[in-house]
Structure formats: C-alpha cells, structure tokens
Amino acid sequence: MKLIDKIFGLVSRINTGAVMVAGWGIIAIMAITSYSVFMRYAFNRPDVWSYPLSAYLLCFVLFLATAHTLQHNVHVRVDFLLMILPRKAAIFLSAVA
User: DSSP readout, 31-96?
Assistant: First the structure.
C-alpha cells in the first residue's frame, strides 16, 4: 500500500471521528438550549452562560463537520456561473475553486 493511501485513510478516519464529535455537539447544543428555555419560563431564572456556550459549540461543530463535507464533496455550492460558461472555462473555474 502506498504512503498516500495510508495518509488518505488516516485523514478519512479522523474526519469520521470529527463528524461523530460534531453530532454529539449538536445534541449538547439542544440540551443546553432546552435547559435555558426551561429555566427561563418555568422558574423565571434565566442564565447567562447558555447562549455563549451554544454559540461556541456551534462554531466548533461547523469546523469539525466542514472537513468531512469537503472530503465527500457534498458541500453546498452555487454553480449557476458554471452552467452558463463554456465547458473548458467551467472546468478551469472548478479546478481553481
């Protein structure tokens, strides 16, 4: 097995683990937000830490999931320009982007 295949396999496993952690991060965001809403409306005791923590966790989740998304080429892209350009220009822009 070539070295590049080993490196690609390692990166793939790291990205898969990162997506798993990102999934648990989404669950944590949901739990923190639910706790905050419950405390605010049930006990009239809002907290000051839940929103900033949820925002930081969301950034963490996005960064972890981005590598996996790019690796599997499922990211959202706007390809309107590629559809109206000639084929060679579209291939060039795809390669550059």
Answer: HHHHHHHHHHHHSS---SSHHHHHHHHHHHHHHHHHHHHHHTT------HHHHHS-HHHHHHHHHH
